[in-house]
Amino acid sequence: MAEHAIGGRSLLAPLRHRDFRLLWTGASASLIGDGVYLVALAWQAYTLSGTPAALATLGVCATVPQLLALLGGGILSDRIDRRLVLLVADAARFVAVLIVATLVLSGHPRLWHLAALSVVYGMGAGIAAPAFDAIIPDVVPEQDLRHANALDQILRPAALRLAGPALGGVLITSLGAGSAFFFDAVTFLVSAVCIARMTAAATPRKTGDPGQEPTLLADLLLGLRFVRSRVWLWGTFASATLAYLLFIGPTEVLLPYLVREVLHQTASDLGLILASGGVGALGAAALVGHFGLPRRQLTFMYLCWTAGTAVVAGYGFATAGWQLMIICLVINGLEAAGTVAWATTKQLLVPAEILGRVSSLDWFISIAGLPVSYALTAPAAALIGARATFVAAGLLGACVTVAALFLPRLREVDGALTPPPPAPVTHTLRNQPCTPAPRSSARMLSPNDFVARRFTSAPATAPAKKGAKLVVLRPNRRRTCARSSRFAAAPKTADNPAAPS
Question: How many CA atoms, within 13 angstroms, populate the side-chain half-sphere of residue 115?
Answer without folding.
Answer: 11
